[in-house]
Amino acid sequence: MAVVTDLGHAPALPARRIGRGYWAGVGRRLMRDPVAVIAAIVILTIVLGAILAPWLGLADPYRGSMLRRLRPVGDALYRLGSDELGRDMLTRLVYGGRLSLLMGLMPVVLAFVAGSTIGILAGFVGGRLNTLIMRTVDVFYAFPSVLLAIALSGALGAGILNAIVSLTIVFTPQVTRIAESVTTQIRTRDYVEAARVSGAGPLAIIRVHVLGNVLGPIFVYATSLISVSMILASGLSFLGLGSKPPEPEWGLMLNTLRTAIYVQPVVAALPGAMIFITSISFNLLSDGLRSAMEVK
Amino acid sequence: MDQLRTDIASRDRGGPAQPLLAVRDLVKHFGGRRAWGGAKAGARRGAVRAVDGVSFDVAKGETLGIVGESGCGKSTVARLIMQIIAADAGEVVFDGEAVGTRALDLTTYRREVQMVFQDSYASLNPRLTVEDTVAFGPRVHGLARRAAIARAHDLISRVGLDPARFAARYPHELSGGQRQRVNIARALALQPRLLILDEAVSALDKSIEAQVLNLLVDLKAAFGLTYMFISHDLNVVRFMSDRVMVMYLGKVAEVGACDVILRDPRHPYTAALLASMPSMDPDRRTTEAPLFGDPPNPIDPPSGCRFHTRCKLAAPVCAATAPPLADIGAAHRVACLMATPGSGHPQAAPEAA
After folding, report:
1. From B160, B175, B214, residue closest to A5, measured CB to CB
2. Which domain, by its residues, includes B289?
3. Is B6 in the same domain as B150?
């Protein structure tokens, strides 16, 4: 058979790049977005600080001093001031990242896994199972997420683990709904039908054709939940439902410092500033990721 | 190539006389509510009668063209044959074996029959490279990755693309014609005997369309394939087909050899379709639309002959009696009362004594 020659009207492509995969392209586009790069640097700094806190040569986060309480920012001994028990604010802010990030990230990671699984199942199987799952999810939507988090934490009892569990329960339905809607869209695409026609079983279709197209959008949505999760986690700690004193945690610090707001307003606002900077950085990174992943 | 061809030919069971595909009384209604009781219990009310009792054969090695307006059930027939959707009634027989029985399970059947979809972009996974897309089917059927990729490269070159340049590309890096070539390669990867082309060239530019049509003709000869070619474009169907089946509102209107039907259409609908083709001769311009209005609603199709509401030759009897698909010789069959002797239509021949 005469092979029909290549027609040569491919869109003009730059010279063959190494690693031309989809995620390599996303990474390249993300690196060109200055806002996303700055947000990523901020997050990286905070995360590294939290992980490496014991080796940074900081003061003891638990040792206070009755004589040097509520020192202002820029004090010779306490660079970012001291709290109401005379503990070094800089140390506690850096250490506070450990619990705050854990309580912000863990629920989102767990909800991402659980919500994706349930949502992809509901979307791919469809029919009655979909109705059953999605109506159950709707029940959770009836409550405002703050209220639901507080109610669940209150019912489970105070504690970091319980706070993480309750926040996971708050976020799972939201991730489930996104996963379900994306999967339902993908399921009816011609390429999924073509795969079915080629005799592939549901597991092979999900693995090869569904996951690759579905996980991206769910991942972007999940990153946008991190900031909400951090704020809710701080809120739970503020209410005494998360971490307990004397653990350094931004939400809890905000609570214990609130009486000092007229004495040292800047120091009292610092934990709030950390929550704000971290959550807005996660949001900006998530926005950058969203636009970097938008290809035809 | 010859080895592949023998391999495909070796799966033949019933000999050349047995139809490769026989479709019998296929019915598919979408939606609607099941009646709870009464005489019509179990039947659906308000359903779209997309395919309503369609029967035809596809002979080995031929190309059967299927034409009709949008919504006449062409694509539904294709999907029913592919078993993408389940039929409400009727059966599909492949080379003498009913599909879905123990003799011919779905997995085996799906190696034998493959399909090329209309939308070349939507039918390619945007996250898979060309070679992975083509190799997916063989891998699902148990071929090792390396062998599957080798077969993919072979097929990519068979459809006229250079594997060295195209195998590692993603769909968005290809033009429409190139994507449709990849879709054809993907369909051929399982070495099917029957290829269903559902408007496979309709979305392409005319020049690219001609190239892909030529490719399909070449591939058919090279692999000894049988085609079912679905299109709304009569010119394309005329170029491709040995036989043509005309569908109207979920039913077969006329079926027969391509040149016979296009030269001497016996169903008024086929005649109207032919008249709607733009003429190349400026002295024979189409001055008047051969058909008026949209096809009737398939939820509540007209009584009797479904075409009688738009037919210029309709008689009162057409609204009352549904025409059978009558054989008028030379494998030419027409569902029109004018072709049925003794039907009561003024232009029908009197009943043979």
Report:
1. B160
2. 268-353
3. yes
Interchain pair A10, B160: CB under 8 A: no
* Total domains, chain B: 2
Q: Are residues B87 and B226 in the same domain?
A: yes
Which three-class secondary structure state does DSSP give residue B205? coil
Sequence spans of domains, chain A: 24-54+71-292
Q: Which two tokens stand for residue B217?
A: 């003709």
Closest-CA distance, A189 to chain B, in angstroms, reads 6
Find which of B104, B106, B125 to mutate to test the A interface (most A CBs within 10 Å of its CB): B125
3-class state of residue A250 by DSSP? helix
Q: Are residues B57 and B88 in the same domain?
A: yes
B290 contacts: CB under 8 Å, gap ≥ 6 = B271, B272, B273, B275, B276
Model confidence band, residue B351 (pLDDT cutoffs 50, 70, 90): low
The ranges of chain A with pLDDT < 50 are 1-19, 296
Total Cβ atoms within 10 A of residue A132: 11
Chain position carrying tokens 């029957």: B194
> Domain A24-54+71-292, what fold?
MetI-like fold (1.10.3720)
- B145 & B225 share domain: yes
Q: Which of B252, B258, B256, B292 has its CA nearest to residue B275?
A: B292
Interface test with A, best of B140, B172, B191, B202 (most A CBs within 10 A): B140
Q: Does residue B289 register a pLDDT over 90?
A: no
Q: Are A35 and A284 in contact, with CB atoms under 8 Å apart?
A: yes
| Whole-number Å distance between alpha carbons of A28 and B176 | 27
Whether omega for the bond prior to residue B350 falls within 30 degrees of 0, making it cis, is no
Give the model confidence (pLDDT) of B81-126 as tens digits. Answer: 988 888 888 889 998 888 877 778 888 888 889 999 988 888 999 8
Q: What is the pLDDT of residue A4?
A: 47
- Residue A24 tokens, joined: 């390599």
Instruction: Find the radius of gyration of the CA atoms of chain B.
Output: 22
Surface-to-core class of residue A240, CB atoms within 10 Å of its CB (0-12 exposed, 13-18 middle, 19+ buried):
middle
Strand, helix or coil for residue A241 = coil
- pLDDT at residue B194 greater than cutoff 90: yes
Residues of A with Cβ-Cβ distance to B119 under 8 angstroms: 190
Query: What is the band of B2 on the pLDDT scale with cuts at 50, 70, 90?
Result: low
The verdict on B188 touching A (C-beta cutoff 8 Å) is: no
pTM confidence score:
0.80
What's residue A107's pLDDT?
95
- B185, B71: one domain: yes
If you compute the radius of gyration of chain A from its CA atoms, what whole number of angstroms results? 24
> How many C-beta neighbours within 10 Å does residue B206 have?
8
At position B305, the amino acid (one-letter code) is C
- Residue finishing a domain among B233, B264, B295: B264
Pair B57, B177 in one domain: yes
Distance CA A73, CA A81 (A): 4
pLDDT of residue B6 exceeding 70: no
Q: What is the CATH number of the domain that holds B163?
A: 3.40.50.300
Predicted confidence at residue B88, as pLDDT, reads 87
Using CA coordinates, name the residue in chain B closest to A211.
B127
Q: How far is the alpha carbon of A201 from chain B, nearest alpha carbon, in Å?
A: 8
Gap between the Cα atoms of A88 and A83, Å rounded: 7
What mean pLDDT comes out for the span B56-77?
Answer: 89
Reading the block at residue A90, the tokens are 């800089």
| Cα gap B28→B51, rounded to integer Å | 5
